[in-house]
Design goal:
Blueprint (H helix, E strand, L loop, with lengths): L6 H12 L7 H16 L9 H10 L4 H17 L5 H10 L8 H28 L19 H6 L4 H23 L4 H18 L4 H34 L3 H10 L6 H18 L3 H18 L4 H14 L5 H11 L3 H28 L4
């Protein structure tokens, strides 16, 4: 609705005019912002509504849709994984491990900075190559439904009217309500959906649309993401079967059992690998903490490893594989309108670098006895 009213592209046009020559900084800036939100109060699914808008911005600035979509997904997911205070992962895991909530934050900040630097470098390197030679785009044959007709010249020429400013102010208020609701009131997808739906109607009315036209835009938007929703539903059935069949606990127990007779560094790396595998079956960070940490904590005690390292291994294994496992990426690809295989072509090298960095940081944590 922000796009249909012209407010979003009007505001972006004003921003591009102000940043003329440096507009490429839009993506790193928002990646850092999304990363901080994911790292501190656990923002993740909340950014899905922004994917079409950022895809449109990227296309208008001469990049491809993958640049805009990946800026949102990578920024948020990396912050969520390399978390500093994330209550949904670190908070629950440290509670189970009987550690002070928020402890070990200095080392986690270092991890956050390193991982965010990696993903920003990787995405901007890809963006530079695509802008220089569009034939190198991984999604050059993908037709995006958002922003395809918007060029940089058209964006810069768009007015940013008083009505547009009111609408964008409402958008910022919506984000503020979102942050407060998720961090203070325990809001999740149902409440966030209601918030976005309500504000969509309000913005549409302010933009001069009748209720019938607003409903028509809503149906068009839903049509673009329904395939991704169906894929997620099918993938979710695997988790339900394994949970109801009491299979998951057995799988976790035997995975952890393989780490009992190795050194601390190897065991820590093994914990990361095990958590990555568990995340295929339990995409939920809080759910995975509840299942795996009661097993990983005694294991850490048995091999003389600090419990903080077990929490670090859990957060890495739980978070970064969300960018790789099909049970997690299907929805993002559906929302972006990108075939899953193209996402893997883009994400594969980056995920390998992430794995290497995870191993290095976990090994260092054992060397310094991270606590």
């Amino acid at each position: 609705m922000l796009i249909q009213t012209g407010a979003f592209y009007g505001s972006m046009g004003a921003l591009v005019r102000k940043l003329r020559g440096s507009e490429v900084l839009i993506f790193p800036a928002f990646m850092i912002l999304f990363g901080i939100c994911g790292s501190t109060f656990g923002m993740y699914e909340e950014v899905y509504g922004l994917l079409p808008a950022f895809i449109g911005i990227a296309i208008a600035l001469g990049y491809d849709g993958l640049v805009g979509g990946a800026a949102v997904v990578l920024g948020t997911a990396t912050g969520f994984a390399a978390a500093t205070l994330n209550p949904f992962t670190i908070g629950i895991a440290q509670g189970i491990a009987e550690l002070p909530i928020g402890s070990g934050v200095v080392y986690r900040i270092i991890c956050f900075v390193l991982f965010q630097s990696l993903v920003i470098w990787y995405l901007m390197r890809y963006a530079h190559r695509v802008k220089k030679d569009p034939s190198l785009s991984i999604v050059r044959d993908v037709k995006f439904n958002t922003g395809g007709s918007m060029t940089r010249e058209k964006m810069e020429a768009l007015p940013f009217t008083a009505k547009h400013k009111i609408i964008m102010l409402l958008f910022m208020i919506t984000i503020g309500i979102l942050v407060y609701g998720t961090s203070q009131l325990g809001w999740y997808l149902s409440e966030l959906s209601a918030l976005f739906l309500t504000m969509m109607i309000i913005v549409g009315i302010i933009g001069g649309f009748g209720l019938s036209k607003i409903a028509g835009f809503f149906v068009e938007a839903v049509a673009e993401v329904i395939f991704g929703a169906l894929v997620v539903g099918i993938a979710r059935s695997l988790t339900i079967v394994m949970t109801e069949g009491n299979i998951i606990d057995t799988v976790v127990y035997y995975m952890a059992g393989t780490l009992t007779n190795v050194g601390s560094s190897i065991a820590a790396v093994g914990m990361v690998a095990v958590q990555n595998l568990i995340n295929f079956f339990i995409p939920s960070g809080s759910g995975q903490a509840a299942v795996s940490m009661p097993i990983m904590v005694p294991l850490a005690d048995a091999i003389g490893m600090n419990r903080q390292i077990a929490v670090l291994a859990f957060q890495f294994g739980d978070g970064f594989s969300n960018l790789f496992w099909p049970t997690s990426v299907a929805l993002e690809c559906g929302l972006m309108g990108i075939p899953v295989e193209k996402w893997y072509r883009f994400m594969g090298p980056l995920f390998f670098m992430m794995v290497i960095l995870q191993v290095i940081l976990v090994v260092i944590s054992t060397m310094i006895n991270f606590s």
